[in-house]
Write a structure and sequence with these properties.
The chain has about 270 residues and is α/β, with parallel strands linked by helices. The chain has ten helices and ten strands. The protein has a six-stranded mixed β-sheet, with helices on both faces. A four-stranded antiparallel β-sheet has the order 2-1-4-5, covered by helices on one side.
Length: about 270
Protein backbone atom coordinates (compact mmCIF):
# COMPACT_ATOMS: atom_id res chain seq x y z
CA UNK A 1 0.00 0.00 0.00
CA UNK A 2 1.41 3.42 -0.94
CA UNK A 3 2.25 5.80 1.89
CA UNK A 4 -0.39 8.28 0.66
CA UNK A 5 -3.07 5.59 0.96
CA UNK A 6 -1.84 4.74 4.45
CA UNK A 7 -1.90 8.43 5.36
CA UNK A 8 -5.46 8.97 4.20
CA UNK A 9 -6.68 5.79 5.88
CA UNK A 10 -5.07 6.99 9.08
CA UNK A 11 -6.76 10.38 8.76
CA UNK A 12 -10.11 8.69 8.10
CA UNK A 13 -9.91 6.50 11.21
CA UNK A 14 -12.12 7.41 14.16
CA UNK A 15 -10.27 9.36 16.84
CA UNK A 16 -9.85 6.74 19.56
CA UNK A 17 -7.37 8.72 21.63
CA UNK A 18 -8.35 11.97 23.25
CA UNK A 19 -6.39 14.35 25.40
CA UNK A 20 -6.60 13.66 29.11
CA UNK A 21 -8.76 16.22 30.98
CA UNK A 22 -5.65 17.41 32.82
CA UNK A 23 -3.36 17.29 29.76
CA UNK A 24 -0.85 20.11 29.45
CA UNK A 25 0.95 21.50 26.43
CA UNK A 26 4.36 19.96 25.95
CA UNK A 27 6.86 22.83 26.15
CA UNK A 28 9.77 23.09 23.70
CA UNK A 29 11.75 19.90 24.18
CA UNK A 30 15.37 18.80 23.99
CA UNK A 31 14.35 15.35 22.76
CA UNK A 32 15.08 12.83 25.53
CA UNK A 33 12.88 9.76 24.92
CA UNK A 34 12.63 6.95 27.48
CA UNK A 35 10.75 3.66 27.17
CA UNK A 36 10.61 2.19 30.67
CA UNK A 37 9.52 -1.47 30.63
CA UNK A 38 6.86 -0.79 27.99
CA UNK A 39 4.47 -3.50 26.82
CA UNK A 40 1.79 -3.05 24.18
CA UNK A 41 -0.85 -5.04 22.29
CA UNK A 42 -3.22 -3.90 19.56
CA UNK A 43 -5.59 -6.67 20.66
CA UNK A 44 -5.97 -8.41 24.01
CA UNK A 45 -3.79 -11.51 24.37
CA UNK A 46 -1.80 -10.63 21.23
CA UNK A 47 1.29 -8.81 22.57
CA UNK A 48 3.29 -6.79 20.05
CA UNK A 49 5.90 -5.30 22.39
CA UNK A 50 7.08 -6.92 25.60
CA UNK A 51 9.08 -5.14 28.30
CA UNK A 52 10.82 -2.63 26.04
CA UNK A 53 13.36 -0.41 27.79
CA UNK A 54 15.08 2.10 25.54
CA UNK A 55 16.69 5.47 26.14
CA UNK A 56 17.52 8.14 23.55
CA UNK A 57 19.39 11.23 24.67
CA UNK A 58 18.89 14.56 22.85
CA UNK A 59 20.56 14.47 19.45
CA UNK A 60 21.19 10.72 19.41
CA UNK A 61 20.45 8.50 16.42
CA UNK A 62 18.64 5.29 17.31
CA UNK A 63 18.23 2.60 14.66
CA UNK A 64 15.53 -0.07 14.92
CA UNK A 65 16.36 -3.33 13.16
CA UNK A 66 14.45 -6.58 12.78
CA UNK A 67 12.31 -8.74 10.58
CA UNK A 68 8.82 -7.70 9.50
CA UNK A 69 6.49 -7.86 12.49
CA UNK A 70 9.27 -7.52 15.06
CA UNK A 71 7.73 -4.33 16.52
CA UNK A 72 9.80 -1.55 14.91
CA UNK A 73 6.86 0.42 13.50
CA UNK A 74 4.91 0.03 16.74
CA UNK A 75 7.69 1.75 18.68
CA UNK A 76 7.49 4.88 16.52
CA UNK A 77 3.67 4.85 16.60
CA UNK A 78 3.82 4.94 20.38
CA UNK A 79 6.26 7.87 20.33
CA UNK A 80 3.77 9.82 18.19
CA UNK A 81 0.97 8.58 20.48
CA UNK A 82 -1.12 7.03 17.74
CA UNK A 83 -1.74 4.40 20.43
CA UNK A 84 -1.32 4.30 24.20
CA UNK A 85 0.96 1.83 25.92
CA UNK A 86 -0.57 -0.91 28.06
CA UNK A 87 2.18 -1.19 30.68
CA UNK A 88 5.27 0.74 31.71
CA UNK A 89 6.00 4.38 30.95
CA UNK A 90 6.93 6.39 27.88
CA UNK A 91 8.27 9.87 28.53
CA UNK A 92 9.70 12.72 26.47
CA UNK A 93 11.85 15.13 28.46
CA UNK A 94 10.23 13.66 31.57
CA UNK A 95 6.65 14.22 30.41
CA UNK A 96 4.40 11.17 30.13
CA UNK A 97 3.11 11.32 26.55
CA UNK A 98 -0.39 10.45 27.81
CA UNK A 99 -0.44 13.60 29.92
CA UNK A 100 0.35 16.15 27.20
CA UNK A 101 -1.86 17.40 24.38
CA UNK A 102 -1.48 15.50 21.15
CA UNK A 103 -1.12 18.71 19.13
CA UNK A 104 1.78 19.98 21.24
CA UNK A 105 3.49 16.58 21.03
CA UNK A 106 3.16 16.05 17.30
CA UNK A 107 4.12 19.62 16.46
CA UNK A 108 7.61 18.73 17.71
CA UNK A 109 7.87 15.48 15.75
CA UNK A 110 8.94 15.05 12.15
CA UNK A 111 7.96 11.88 10.29
CA UNK A 112 9.49 10.96 6.94
CA UNK A 113 8.08 7.86 5.26
CA UNK A 114 9.87 5.39 3.02
CA UNK A 115 7.51 6.43 0.21
CA UNK A 116 6.99 10.15 0.83
CA UNK A 117 3.68 11.84 0.06
CA UNK A 118 3.69 14.94 -2.13
CA UNK A 119 0.43 16.67 -2.97
CA UNK A 120 -0.42 18.20 -6.34
CA UNK A 121 1.08 21.67 -6.47
CA UNK A 122 4.47 23.30 -6.79
CA UNK A 123 7.74 22.18 -5.27
CA UNK A 124 7.75 25.35 -3.15
CA UNK A 125 4.27 24.60 -1.80
CA UNK A 126 5.27 21.05 -0.89
CA UNK A 127 8.33 22.21 1.02
CA UNK A 128 6.39 25.07 2.66
CA UNK A 129 3.94 22.54 4.11
CA UNK A 130 6.55 21.98 6.85
CA UNK A 131 6.14 25.62 7.92
CA UNK A 132 3.18 27.35 6.32
CA UNK A 133 4.41 30.86 7.06
CA UNK A 134 7.87 30.21 5.55
CA UNK A 135 9.28 32.73 3.10
CA UNK A 136 10.72 31.79 -0.28
CA UNK A 137 14.19 32.48 1.11
CA UNK A 138 13.62 30.00 3.97
CA UNK A 139 12.41 27.39 1.49
CA UNK A 140 15.57 27.81 -0.59
CA UNK A 141 17.79 27.57 2.49
CA UNK A 142 16.13 24.27 3.49
CA UNK A 143 16.42 22.92 -0.05
CA UNK A 144 20.10 23.83 -0.25
CA UNK A 145 20.80 22.17 3.10
CA UNK A 146 19.54 18.77 1.92
CA UNK A 147 20.95 19.00 -1.60
CA UNK A 148 17.67 19.67 -3.40
CA UNK A 149 18.42 23.17 -4.73
CA UNK A 150 20.62 22.06 -7.61
CA UNK A 151 18.11 19.75 -9.27
CA UNK A 152 15.21 22.13 -8.55
CA UNK A 153 17.08 25.00 -10.20
CA UNK A 154 17.58 22.95 -13.36
CA UNK A 155 13.86 22.35 -13.80
CA UNK A 156 12.13 24.64 -16.32
CA UNK A 157 9.98 26.32 -13.68
CA UNK A 158 12.34 25.85 -10.73
CA UNK A 159 10.54 26.00 -7.40
CA UNK A 160 7.27 26.67 -9.23
CA UNK A 161 7.42 23.30 -11.00
CA UNK A 162 4.18 21.35 -10.61
CA UNK A 163 5.04 18.00 -9.04
CA UNK A 164 1.80 16.30 -10.11
CA UNK A 165 -0.41 14.10 -7.92
CA UNK A 166 1.83 12.39 -5.34
CA UNK A 167 4.90 13.80 -7.11
CA UNK A 168 4.43 11.79 -10.28
CA UNK A 169 6.49 14.31 -12.30
CA UNK A 170 9.58 13.69 -10.14
CA UNK A 171 11.83 10.70 -9.57
CA UNK A 172 11.67 8.65 -6.37
CA UNK A 173 14.90 10.21 -5.16
CA UNK A 174 13.75 13.75 -5.92
CA UNK A 175 10.49 13.19 -4.04
CA UNK A 176 12.40 11.88 -1.05
CA UNK A 177 14.80 14.82 -0.91
CA UNK A 178 11.91 17.29 -1.16
CA UNK A 179 10.31 15.53 1.80
CA UNK A 180 13.59 16.04 3.69
CA UNK A 181 13.54 19.77 2.90
CA UNK A 182 9.96 19.94 4.19
CA UNK A 183 10.94 18.16 7.43
CA UNK A 184 14.00 20.38 7.89
CA UNK A 185 11.89 23.51 7.44
CA UNK A 186 9.54 22.29 10.19
CA UNK A 187 12.57 21.99 12.52
CA UNK A 188 11.30 19.08 14.69
CA UNK A 189 13.20 18.10 17.81
CA UNK A 190 12.43 14.39 17.30
CA UNK A 191 12.70 12.86 13.86
CA UNK A 192 11.15 9.54 12.84
CA UNK A 193 12.41 7.97 9.63
CA UNK A 194 10.99 4.94 7.89
CA UNK A 195 14.35 4.27 6.24
CA UNK A 196 14.43 6.38 3.15
CA UNK A 197 16.86 4.61 0.84
CA UNK A 198 15.33 1.18 0.31
CA UNK A 199 13.48 2.16 -2.89
CA UNK A 200 16.35 3.86 -4.75
CA UNK A 201 19.49 2.82 -6.58
CA UNK A 202 22.94 2.88 -4.98
CA UNK A 203 24.00 6.21 -6.53
CA UNK A 204 20.82 7.97 -5.40
CA UNK A 205 21.16 6.30 -2.00
CA UNK A 206 24.48 8.08 -1.41
CA UNK A 207 22.92 11.46 -2.22
CA UNK A 208 19.96 10.76 0.05
CA UNK A 209 22.23 9.55 2.85
CA UNK A 210 24.08 12.88 2.79
CA UNK A 211 20.72 14.68 2.99
CA UNK A 212 19.69 12.43 5.87
CA UNK A 213 22.85 13.28 7.79
CA UNK A 214 22.00 16.97 7.46
CA UNK A 215 18.39 16.38 8.48
CA UNK A 216 19.30 14.35 11.58
CA UNK A 217 22.03 16.70 12.80
CA UNK A 218 21.21 17.87 16.33
CA UNK A 219 17.87 16.01 16.48
CA UNK A 220 16.87 12.88 18.32
CA UNK A 221 16.26 10.44 15.47
CA UNK A 222 14.59 7.05 15.30
CA UNK A 223 15.35 5.20 12.08
CA UNK A 224 13.63 2.04 10.92
CA UNK A 225 16.48 0.49 8.97
CA UNK A 226 16.02 -1.78 5.98
CA UNK A 227 19.47 -1.35 4.45
CA UNK A 228 21.80 -1.86 7.37
CA UNK A 229 24.64 -0.11 5.54
CA UNK A 230 22.82 3.18 6.17
CA UNK A 231 22.86 2.98 9.97
CA UNK A 232 26.46 2.01 10.73
CA UNK A 233 27.00 5.43 12.35
CA UNK A 234 23.96 5.24 14.63
CA UNK A 235 24.63 5.95 18.31
CA UNK A 236 22.68 2.84 19.22
CA UNK A 237 21.15 0.01 17.22
CA UNK A 238 18.29 -1.95 18.80
CA UNK A 239 17.62 -5.35 17.27
CA UNK A 240 14.04 -6.53 17.76
CA UNK A 241 12.52 -9.98 17.46
CA UNK A 242 9.03 -11.02 18.53
CA UNK A 243 8.40 -7.69 20.24
CA UNK A 244 11.54 -7.72 22.38
CA UNK A 245 14.93 -6.05 22.12
CA UNK A 246 17.33 -8.97 21.83
CA UNK A 247 20.52 -7.01 21.08
CA UNK A 248 21.64 -3.42 21.40
CA UNK A 249 24.86 -1.52 20.82
CA UNK A 250 26.84 0.28 18.15
CA UNK A 251 27.50 -1.27 14.75
CA UNK A 252 30.97 -2.40 15.80
CA UNK A 253 29.77 -3.77 19.14
CA UNK A 254 27.01 -5.81 17.52
CA UNK A 255 29.28 -7.21 14.82
CA UNK A 256 31.69 -8.31 17.57
CA UNK A 257 28.87 -10.22 19.30
CA UNK A 258 28.33 -12.28 16.13
CA UNK A 259 24.63 -12.61 16.95
CA UNK A 260 21.42 -11.71 15.11
CA UNK A 261 22.68 -8.35 13.83
CA UNK A 262 25.91 -9.91 12.60
CA UNK A 263 23.91 -12.48 10.64
CA UNK A 264 21.58 -9.86 9.13
CA UNK A 265 24.43 -7.54 8.18
CA UNK A 266 26.67 -10.18 6.63
CA UNK A 267 23.70 -11.59 4.68
CA UNK A 268 22.92 -8.17 3.20
CA UNK A 269 26.60 -7.54 2.44
CA UNK A 270 26.85 -10.86 0.60
CA UNK A 271 23.71 -10.11 -1.44
CA UNK A 272 25.03 -6.66 -2.39
CA UNK A 273 28.35 -8.08 -3.54
Amino acid sequence: MASSERLFRLLDMPQDLTDAPEAVDLPPIAGRVIFDDVSFAYKDDEPVLSHISLRAEPGQRIALVGETGAGKSTIIRLIARFFDINEGALTIDGYDVRQVTQASLRSQLGIVLQDPFLFAGTIADNIRYGKLEATQAEIVVAAKAVGAHDFISKLPDGYQTDVGENGVNLSVGQRQIISFARALLADPRILILDEATSSVDTTTEKIIQQALDTLMEGRTSFVIAHRLSTIVNADMIAVLANGRIIERGTHEELLAKRGRYFNLYTMQWAQAN
